[in-house]
Amino acid sequence: MPMIIEEKIYTCRRCGSSNLKKNGKNRYGNQQYFCKDCKKSGVLNPKNSYTETEKEQILAAYKERPSMRGISRLYGISRNTLASWLQKKSTHSQT
Ligand SMILES: [Zn+2]
Fold first, then answer.
1. How many angstroms is it from 39 CA to the middle of ligand 1?
2. Model pLDDT for residues 32-89, shown as the tens digit of each residue
3. CA 6 to ligand 1 centroid distance, Å
4. Between 52-64 and 79-92, two packed helices, what is the crossing angle to 10 degrees?
């Protein structure tokens, strides 16, 4: 019986392979993947845009644990995006 369920094809962020295996969720509820080709694991569905709420959440998490690498891995956010937020945050908070 043919499967007509539409499945979104995800590709590895490092090597572009679609030979991925779902790898559970991290504690923030983001679906993670494991790439069978390059053995990378990461967040499956990284977004390019974030709502203000998500942004606040991520920035709060960064405040608790200031590790760009950790945060970018947890949320699938690029370090550039995070860095630009942090810059904006600090220029905004002048009293
Ligand atoms: Zn890969």
1. 6
2. 899 999 999 888 876 667 888 989 999 999 999 999 999 998 888 889 889 999 998 7
3. 23
4. 90
Centre of ligand 1 to C-alpha 85, Å, is 28
1 inside domain: no
Q: Whole-model pTM above 0.90?
A: no
Owning domain of residue 36: 9-45
In a domain, 56, yes or no: yes
Write out pLDDT tens, residues 2-32: 666 666 678 888 898 989 999 998 887 888 8
Within-domain flag for 2? no
Do 35 and 20 reside in the same domain of the chain? yes
CA pair distance 56, 33, nearest whole angstrom: 25
- Number of structural domains found in the chain: 2
Alpha helical stretches, state H, the chain: 52-64, 68-75, 79-92
